[in-house]
Amino acid sequence: xxxxxxxxxxxxxxxxxxxxxxxxxxxxxxxxxxxxxxxxxxxxxxxxxxxxxxxxxxxxxxxxxxxxxxxxxxxxxxxxxxxxxxxxxxxxxxxxxxxxxxxxxxxxxxxxxxxxxxxxxxxxxxxxxxxxxxxxxxxxxxxxxxxxxxxxxxxxxxxxxxxxxxxxxxxxxxxxxxxxxxxxxxxxxxxxxxxxxxxxxxxxxxxxxxxxxxxxxxxxxxxxxxxxxxxxxxxxxxxxxxxxxxxxxxxxxxxxxxxxxxxxxxxxxxxxxxxxxxxxxxxxxxxxxxxxxxxxxxxxxxxxxxxxxxxxxxx
Length: 315
Ligand code: PSU
Ligand code: MN
Prior knowledge:
binds pseudouridine-5'-monophosphate; binds manganese (II) ion; 50% helix; eleven-stranded mixed beta sheet; globular; alpha/beta
């Protein structure tokens, strides 16, 4: 019986390769907090060269906050913490890099692909690598159309115990529906410096939160309690986009409506929909949404670093 399990264990280990740590991240984790970052925002979500700027600003913000940034990606089939050098360049050039969500992870590994991980896939890698704090721009959620297009981010948030720092869910989505789904899934949401669920490009949505703080230690303590209770899901920390970069709700609404009409006319669906809508909103706002996206990514990485440091101090 024991042998059976032992053999089974070996087989499972061989077939599901553990997440690899780049040498610099492996060294950093010994004495510093780590903030995990996703790579789909770099390879699909943002245009070039803004994706390079986003990478630089997020990494600098995490370091200034006392943590080491670790970009998650599947690099030529290897799930990795730490995307650097020539590998990073390939992702920034989006040279044959696939968008990898939770469902594609195993396939990307088996086929030796370069895969840029979405929030859903990044959460899965965080769990395998033992990473507790992750920063992104805005999570995916329930799309306004077509019906039944609901990001895998929501389900993974419901079953992956990782602190996820974001500016709410992306403005292109049905935000009230997304907010309700997070509630149904039991995802703890903590407003940081707000008691409202932010709308990614906008600071307000009118969706009221039940928990808010402006102390990273509160987040760390809530996460520790959540874990101790055996809760399976994420702790979603939401902070509004920086005031000087945030957009007006009416401007965003008009831009999103124009973007949805464009997507409908072009027949865009599936994984291509989110990047398409983000691009269309950027055109409709004359680039203002791009500036907001960069600013909020940076702010989220900075906050994630403070939380990661607080969590480490909690022991
Ligand atoms: N945050 C951003 N820009 C992005 C994304 C997040 O500021 O492009 C990405 C994330 O990787 C997220 C994905 O998981 O968009 C959602 O895609 P979909 O709706 O296809 O699940
Ligand atoms: Mn989708």
